[in-house]
Amino acid sequence: MLKIDTTNKSEIALAKKYCRFILTDEPATHHRFIEKEDGTVIYRMGIGKGSKVTVRSFRLIVRSIIQAAKSHKVEALALDFYALDFPALATYGEKWRASTVVENLLLADYEFTTYKTKKPDKKNLKEVLIYNLNSQEAKEGIKRGLIVGDYINQARTIANTPGCDLSPTDLGNAAKKLTAKTKISLQVLGEKEIKKLKMGALLAVGQGTKSETRFIIAEYWGAGKGSGKKVSTEQKPIVLIGKGITYDTGGLNVKPAGFMHEMHMDMSGGSAVLAAITIVARLGLKKNVVALVPTAENAISDTAMRAGDIVTAMNGKTVEVLHTDAEGRMVLADALTYSARYEPKVIIDVATLTGAALVALGQQASAVLTKHDDLAAKLVTLGETSGDLVWPLPLWDEYKASLKSHRADISNIATNFSRFGGSIEGGTFLSFFAPKNVPWAHLDIAPRMDSIPADKLAKGSTGEPVRLLVSFVEQA
Fold it and tell me: What is the distance between the alpha carbons of residues 309 and 321, in angstroms, rounded to a whole number?
């Protein structure tokens, strides 16, 4: 991990090894190295007028600093904390600004090089020093940002790992490693235990592979567990559910060429909720959080789930499988049913569920579907402040009619095989399994599974929406 240090010293007192990054109001294309008479080096980077910097562009400015440092082989750079203050950020406070700076320094520095045989260049970025950092609020933000950024990058590494090295069993082991040395209680259930729970939908998805299906349960009781009638509203947990399909071929309805090669990241929702609960524990928040990850491989074989099969989900509903590539909603269905035993105060499920979400929103934001307007509004607002943008799509009862099966209770896609509203269709299917009288939101993160050039991040997993989930728990 990139070393990030802080000091209350001014620029004058810094060691000569640091390249001082100075942000100027010149155009963003302006980059200039200056070596002063005393041997110190300054890098002037244009960002345009500071008055026009927004919360969104601020994050990209921080990431651009890392990109510039790497491209010019800077080994140690220094940033003036108070030079990273802009009018649009004033209402967010120094803790938010410090945390945001550190998070994005770490996110921008991350590269997935596990399988690279060529040794990295010895002259690369090793250290960032943030100077003129004096307030306690800012120092707390630095600590938060280090934890958040580190665990997001760990989630990205898990998501970037190819399916050949990340089976459901491997994901369970990764969860153990991720949550180690925290107060998180972790269970990884095998197929015998899953069968006892009657999770027929989850088992059906994983029945075509030799990689055994798993169900990961992580619990953090930061506010105290309580028991029986003594459980207060504050002690009712927030349940986070993440889709954990470690590789998705599409099943017997196999994906077309060019649509399968990144499907090792179809468990990004699972890695995200595991990282989020770990961050909550590492921050020592007095909140109760449960993370559930149903994990399976959707493979092709003579035992694979077939189009036309009818399976019985954990809640007793029968599901007609009209398309084997609509598997994510099936594993989430059983996890949603399981979540009811916690009597949660809110449930958020996270999944790379549909390509239709990209058609609706492009690759800029994840979709949020919920019948609770206040929950949707909160997630949209926190998306802006955290950087994990989301935007609502409707979840009206009128959409349920399309899933009414002729042979079972419901089908896993529209019975007329409609190509319209696919992301809404996925959320509507899940609504049949969400516990009643509990606020629930579904996040379709397919648009944000993989980074795009505008993100100024390495190719591969973005690690979203970990920041959003952590912010939600903090303010719940």
Answer: 5
Q: Of 95, 329, 456, 467, which one is the catalytic site residue?
A: 329
Residue 286 annotated in active site: no
Region of poorest pLDDT, from 111-125, 141-155, 390-404, 448-462: 111-125
Strands 318-320 and 410-411: parallel
Q: Cis bond leading into 465, ω under 30°?
A: yes
Spatial CB neighbours of 175, under 8 Å, sequence gap ≥ 6: 186, 188, 216, 218, 274, 293
Q: Give pLDDT tens digits for 142-201.
A: 999 999 999 999 999 999 999 999 999 999 999 999 999 999 999 999 999 999 999 999
Q: What single DSSP character describes residue 461?
A: B
Write out pLDDT tens, residues 386-409.
999 999 999 999 999 999 999 999
- In the chain the domains, ranked by start, together with CATH numbers, are 3-138 (3.40.220.10), 166-475 (3.40.630.10)
306: annotated active-site residue: no
- The catalytic residue among 143, 195, 255, 317 is 255
Query: How far is it, in rounded angstroms, from Cα 358 to Cα 367?
Result: 9
